[in-house]
Each structure stands twice: as C-alpha cells, then as structure tokens.
Amino acid sequence: MSSLAIGRARRGSMGLGTALAGALSAIAANPLRAALTMLGIVIGTAAVIATVAVGSGAREVVLAQIRSLGSNLIIILPGAQSTGGVRTGTGFSQTLTYDDGTAILRDVPSVALAVPGVRSTQQVVAGGANWSTTVQGTTLDFLEAREWEIAAGRAWTAEEEARAAKVALVGESVAVALFGDADPVGAQIRIRNVPFEVVGLLARKGQASTGLDQDDLVLTPLWTARRSIIGASRANARAVGTILVKVHEGEDMAAVEEDVRALLRQRHRLAATEPDDFSMRNLAEIAATRDASARTLSVLLSSVATVSLLVGGIGIMNIMLVSVTERTREIGLRLAVGARRRDILLQFLLEAVTLSLIGGLAGIALGVAAANLAAASAGWPVLIEPAAVGIAVGFSALVGIVFGFYPARRAATLDPIAALRHE
C-alpha cells in the first residue's frame, strides 16, 4: 500500500474519492483478470440491449405494416358457400351487397365510413407492356378509409363515379411494370380490352403484414368494375366482395364489430341458431396480437440475457474473493495503522461495482453495434430504448453490489494480526 494511502488511513475515514481511486488502481494492476471478470457482464448487457433493440425494431415494422392498411378498420367478407356437400372458403358466396354498406354507415353511429368493393385478378396492358394485377372497383371513400395519398394526378370525381366512367388509379408497382420511369398520369391502359384513362398514381404503401405488395393494384369506380370488368351477377346485381368499415377514433372496436354483426344478421334474416353468412376481421386485434407476440419474444430473450448477467456477477464474486486472499497482508497493514473496517468494505465494494459498470458500458456499446448489424441484415430499423439502457446499467451496478458485498465484508472483518501474519 502507498505511503499516501497509509497516511490517509491514519488520519481517519477514507473519502469516497480515495476509495474509488484505490479501486481503479487495483483493477488497473491486473487488467487481464479484470477483463475476464467483466466478460460475463459485457455479454449479458450486450444481449439485453441487442434483443430489446432488435425486438422493438421488428415490432415497429409489424405495426407500420398494420398501420399502412389504415387505422380503425374492420373488413367484412362474404361467408362460405356449400354446394353438393362441398364447402368453399370465405368470400366465395355473394352474401354482401352495396346496400349493406349503406345501412352500416346509416345505422351504426360509431362508423365513419363503409366502403363496398369488388376485386379480381386481371391482365392490364399498356402499349407493348402487360402486367397481371389486382383490379379493385370501389368508391371514393376507399382512399380516406385506407389513408392512401395520391402521389400524382387526381382521384376520380363523384360525377365520374356516378356515370361509371372508365378511369383508373394505379399503384406504384403497376406503374413501374407498365410505364417504367415515365409518368403514367394521362396514359391509357386496357383491362379486358376495355380502355381506361389513368387519372392518378397512388402513393407507395409497401408490403402488407401478410407479405403482399399493396402497390400492385389498380383502382376503378365500383360500378365501372361491375359493368366493364368483373360483371354483375344476374341473381344479385348489387353484390359486393368486401365492405371496408372505418370506425371513428376512440371508439371501442369490439363493440362496433358486434353492432355491425347484429345489423348484418338482421338484414340477412338469419335465425339465432344460424351461423353468420359473412366474416369480419378487426385489424386492431391483429395488430394487438402481433405486438403482444413480439413483446413476449423480447421478454423471453431478455430473460435469457439476464442469466448471463447473473453468471457475470458470480464471476465477479469469485475474483473478488481471490483478490481479498491475495491482498490479506495489505488489508492487515491498513487496519493496523488506523483504517476503519467500513473503509475496507467501501473500497472492495467499489471495486466490484466499478468492474460491473465498466462491463455494463462496454456491453452497451457492443449491444448497440450488434443490434445495428442484426437490423441491417434483417432490413428493419433499430430502436434503442433509453429504458433498456438504463435498466442494463442499473442491473450491472446491482450485480456489482450484490455479488461484491460478501467479498468486501470478508475483507473488512479480517483480524489485523492474523492478516499481517498471512503468507
């Protein structure tokens, strides 16, 4: 021990700054051992930061995909159809009508928009190029319900919708496939050999949560699609393939869903014992389910990473016990010249905490780097949450205190005479 430290010990209690300086000096005296001691803390902290950051980024991607569909939406599809004992999937029957959408908007106060639509896959031709895409007939309210902007051109007008004008809006993927870098607005496309004027280009939406390209789409007025592309059923000329319901902000989606279900069952004259002849999908519930799954995965991974921190704490305790044994004569000398036992306790405890904090800081840097690397590989953003960083650092300090206390107390309770005789 230095003469300065002995002098301070003779004068009385050791200050926090002196204890910290002594702790750093002891750590610097054995850098390799200190590095190996901190390894568990570094790995544990890095794992916590990386898993939380990557998990948060992945969750944000999923939620962004759900939001791209539009907020507060309920999708209503026709029910299944049974023919000769063979039951088709959802959407094959014609149990929904344009008038169902009108009734939903009129009779359910919480509904802001009810947008009927029909769709089919068609080959779209422009000049010498052609592209197979989804053609959807809908109303002007579709853009508001889906919160879909127009990047260039305009939407069709109410007058064009009423007279079933042959106008269309194209998604970015269709525009690139048919026109390349050229502006599609004002150009002519053919759908089933029927000419349509492209009046607008839809803003990019990207992939849906299902992986489908939302921009691979052509929109036309509903009755235009019915008369010129898809055709109308002779049995039900007003049948539609989907009704998109947008609910007012702040309303209980589940309650609105039940109100809409009750209304449709009444309109379709279904008995209490009969099943729904339609299906409903609440996008808010899908988002909540996926968000909960992502959070559960993040918690699981963080729990596994926490085990690494505990293992690192055990490593710190072992090394500190070894350090106490190696420095027994030094401890005896300090006690003999007047150092108080709490001074010894403070210095060894500070050594453990300092090791943990340095390891925690190194772990944060490693975790951020690992999170950025993983996110770059997966193609999603990294969200470094301050709470996760704070928890990681705080837990590192806690590990140092918990696992460093026993070695520090053991050092402080040594008998000075026995310590001085220690070989």
Counting DSSP E segments of at least 2 residues, the number of strands comes to 12
Query: What is the alpha-carbon Rg in Å?
Result: 35 Å
Largest sheet: 6 strands, mixed, barrel
Helix content: 55-70%
Strand order of the largest sheet: 4-5-10-7-9-8
Task: Give start-end ranges of low-pLDDT stretches.
Answer: 1-12, 82-91
Give the end-to-end Cα distance, rounded to a whole number of Å.
Answer: 16 Å
Number of domains: 2
Shape descriptor reads: elongated
- Compute the number of helices: 14
- Derived structural class: alpha+beta
Strand share of the residues?
Answer: 15-25%
Average pLDDT for all residues = 80
Could you spell the SSE succession in H and E letters? HHHEEEHEEHEHEHEEEHEHEHHHHH
Structure description:
The chain is of the alpha+beta class. The protein has 2 domains: about 5-65 and about 290-420, no CATH class; about 95-275, no CATH class. It has 14 helices and 12 strands. The strands form 2 sheets. It has a 6-stranded mixed beta barrel with strand order 4-5-10-7-9-8. A two-stranded antiparallel sheet has the order 2-3. Strand 8 and strand 9 form a beta hairpin. Helix 3 packs antiparallel against helix 10 (about 285-325). The longest helix is centred in the C-terminal third of the chain and has 44 residues, at about 285-325. The radius of gyration is 35 Å and the shape is elongated. The chain starts with a helix and ends with a helix. About 40% of the residues are buried.
